[in-house]
Specification:
GO molecular function, one term: sulfotransferase activity
Enzyme class: transferase
CATH superfamily: P-loop containing nucleotide triphosphate hydrolases
Helix content: 40-55%
Distance between the termini: 28 Å
Protein name: Sulfotransferase
Order of helices and strands: EHEHEHHHEHHHHHHHH
EC number: 2.8.2.-
Keywords: Transferase
Number of strands: 4
CATH class: Alpha Beta
């Protein structure tokens, strides 16, 4: 990824199914908050939201090692979002089940889910083991704080305004006192909220060029929702899996 050489480049990174399009959308809308809200109407789909910044912007699931040279040699900004290990797996299974049912007309069998869970715990993934993925960015954020911001989904859900301001500060577009006093932060959060985006017609009926329905990308990921989906055996295994890799890093998943 040698193209990430400008100071205005922005990358939004997350492990597969750590979160929806929310993180990709928030900074884009926020740094272009001069665009009238009327421009984000019924035809607004974050998948197609055009870049207005001077530098390149992209969202990816890639591991840090895939473009580490580019990051080290540039001042591009990286926003990384991780999520609780258990909720991440549940979200991944919901997404895969949607694809399976859509393409093959069948629901995932119990043995398929068990196999997927075993692979997840062992780190079998197109983008590398989840623990490695998160840990690499976590450690990089501590040595490159001006360029890398490590975010947690749970903290964003608890204090979205505070976390969004952290993003804007990193990107060089801090909110002014007047903007905050006039409700600018709350308005952007409303525009980018799950309820608002998922209820837009384009996101309920539209499709990507691949044929995948836009609604596949919208699932309300409640913090702690894993308690309704995982067995005690799964919970115990996931509780112990991160300890083997994270060690003394201080990171808790």
């Amino acid at each position: 990824m040698k193209s990430l050489s400008g100071t205005s480049a922005l990358s939004v990174i997350k492990p597969t199914q750590s979160v929806t399009l929310w993180l990709a959308l928030l900074p884009k809308v926020s740094i272009h908050r001069h665009v009238p809200p009327s421009g984000l109407g019924e035809t607004f789909n974050p998948i197609y939201y055009p870049p207005y910044r001077s530098g390149p912007e992209f969202v990816t699931h890639m591991q840090l090692v895939s473009f580490s040279d580019s990051v080290k040699d540039s001042k591009c900004k990286l926003l990384y979002l991780c999520r609780n290990l258990k909720d991440t797996f549940v979200s991944l299974r919901h997404y895969d089940n949607k694809l399976t049912h859509n393409e093959m007309g069948i629901q995932a069998l119990e043995e398929v889910i068990e196999e997927a869970f075993d692979q997840f715990c062992r780190g079998v993934s197109s983008y590398g083991p989840y623990r490695d993925h998160v840990l690499d960015y976590y450690e990089t954020s501590s040595v490159m704080p001006p360029e890398v911001l490590f975010l947690r989904y749970e903290e964003m859900m608890e204090k979205p305004g505070e976390q969004m301001k952290r993003m804007d500060d990193l990107l060089g577009f801090p909110f002014s006192e007047d903007e905050e006093a006039n409700g600018g932060v709350d308005e952007i959060l409303r525009l980018c909220s799950f309820d608002n985006l998922s209820n837009l017609e384009v996101n309920q009926t539209g499709k990507l060029w691949t044929g995948m329905e836009n609604e596949f990308f919208f699932r309300k990921g409640d913090v702690g929702g894993w308690v309704n989906s995982l067995t005690p055996e799964m919970i115990e295994r996931l509780d112990h899996t991160p300890e083997e890799k994270l060690g003394s890093s201080g990171l808790k998943l």
